[in-house]
Amino acid sequence: MNEGREVSRRRLLGRLALGAVAAGGGLVTIKGLHAGQAQLPGDRRPLPSFTGPSSNPYWNSIGPIVEYPEKLPLILLTDRAPQLETPRQYFQGAFTPNAAFYVRWHLDEIPNSVDLTAWRLRVEGSVERPLEFAMSDLLTRFKPVSVAAVNQCSGNSRSVLEPRVPGGQWGNGAMGNAKWTGVPLRELLDAANLKQDALAVQFQGLDQGKGPEGHGSHQFLKSLDLKDSVIDDCIVAYAMNDEPLPMLNGFPVRLVVPGYFATYWMKSLSWIRVLNVPDDNFWMKTGYRVPDTPNGSTTPEEFKTGKIKTVPISRMPVRSFIITPSDDTKLVAGLPVVIRGIAFSGHGSVEKLEASTDDGNTWTPAQLGENFGPYSFRTWSFAWTPRRHGRYVLAARATDAKGNMQPDAAIWNPGGYLWNRIERQQVTVGHAS
Ligand SMILES: Nc1nc2c(c(=O)[nH]1)N[C@H]1C(S)=C(S)[C@@H](COP(=O)(O)O)O[C@H]1N2
Ligand SMILES: [Mo]
């Protein structure tokens, strides 16, 4: 991280404390957002790229553009609970602006205000010493740590699966990268001193109510096995790109699980509960599971037999994206253009990016941008001069530090998870005049 991105604790402390006193009684309130009834502004502009048939289905989620508090115009998938997708143009750099960061909640009562004078983070359950931390404790009693990490919904790109599967019909915009700053989860657990029988850590946020699918649970609960080494990478984050988290992205603190899909990244985290029995709540036992097959892939027929064992989803497979040119970029024969994009993996840094301008028949290494650490987006670029006019199909393929390379085959599973197939972008190159 360069100096300019260093979080100033004093400034952040000031902002968080300011928030606490701003609205008398210490209430931080987001105007226009009400629990259980997120308000939509009347203004619904169409997506600029909806002008004709698309040559890249991945970036064209159908949905109105809406503005929520603290957010730029984003693509609306559902409003109760809010699911907002980030449009393609915000992925030009390695870090996603907080105001453009996608939003996903499951339950219909989401926090719209947090009284920081009363708010506490609790560590309870199978611990010798149950603890409560105020925001000021988190800010002053622990040395802050930072990590650049991609938050990607398990169902990112779900809309391209065939056959279609239920769930939010995301294009590619259910992901974002940020610099997260906070307290290592391990230090909070150590402070509370785990009991001998501790098995897993369960996380709970401030949201509640029924989910859209109407299943029983009144709470969204996720847990991680204490034997999972990812526990030592987890951060309880109070800052996102050096700012307090937007309310919709989990103010005042959220769990960051570098390399893992976002389902574990509990927002408005308020309870850390150490369990001495396996977590069999809906969101672990039934939801967010993937077939225990090599790529997490199966077929509808195979799945129907009931013989496919499933496991909780965990690390994100390697992916890459072409951001520019897009469908409507004007290209001219003989004129150089730089193809740009981003890549990441939940298994370590992207070490190689290859680009193709002939639909994946031949591949050439592209230039990789700065490495912000193993779990960050990494930008890439590839200089290209199309020689002749006509249609071209661009493609990008990433390989991570473990040698995993993106496949060129579709996958399918009933949750619509783990999509990472090589993508294409069709472009039209005009005549040199
Ligand atoms: N409290 C809470 N945390 C949550 C969720 C939720 O519904 N409630 N959804 C999870 C899922 S599935 C995703 S994809 C991410 C979305 O994070 P974001 O809204 O900051 O983009 O939050 C995760 N954390
Ligand atoms: Mo998700």
Tell me what you see in this structure:
With 433 residues, the chain is mainly beta. It folds into two domains: 2-287, Oxidoreductase, molybdopterin-binding domain (Sulfite Oxidase, Chain A, domain 2, Alpha-Beta Complex), CATH 3.90.420; 319-430, Immunoglobulin-like. The protein has five helices and 27 strands. It has a five-stranded mixed β-sheet with strand order 8-7-16-11-12. Strands 9, 10, 13, 14 and 15 form a five-stranded antiparallel β-sheet that branches. The longest helix is centred in the first third of the chain and has 14 residues, at 9-22. It is globular. The structure holds the ligand Nc1nc2c(c(=O)[nH]1)N[C@H]1C(S)=C(S)[C@@H](COP(=O)(O)O)O[C@H]1N2 and molybdenum atom. The site of molybdenum atom (MO) has 6 residues, from loops.
Topology of helices and strands:
Blueprint lengths: L8 H14 L4 E3 L35 E2 L7 E6 L2 E4 L17 E2 L8 E3 L5 E5 L5 E3 L1 H6 L4 E8 L22 E10 H8 L7 E6 L15 E5 L9 E6 L2 E2 L9 E3 L12 E7 L6 H4 L3 E3 L8 H5 L5 E3 L6 E6 L6 E2 L4 E8 L5 E7 L7 E2 L1 E2 L9 E7 L5 E11 L22 E8 L3
Parallel strand pairs: 7-16, 20-27
Antiparallel strand pairs: 1-6, 2-3, 3-4, 4-5, 7-8, 9-10, 10-13, 11-12, 11-16, 13-14, 13-15, 17-18, 19-21, 21-25, 22-23, 22-26, 24-25, 26-27
Tell me the β content.
Answer: 25-35%
| Average pLDDT, all residues | 88
> Which CATH architecture of the largest domain would you pick?
Alpha-Beta Complex
Helix content: under 10%
Q: Say what the CATH topology of the largest domain is.
A: Sulfite Oxidase, Chain A, domain 2
Bound molecules: the ligand Nc1nc2c(c(=O)[nH]1)N[C@H]1C(S)=C(S)[C@@H](COP(=O)(O)O)O[C@H]1N2, molybdenum atom
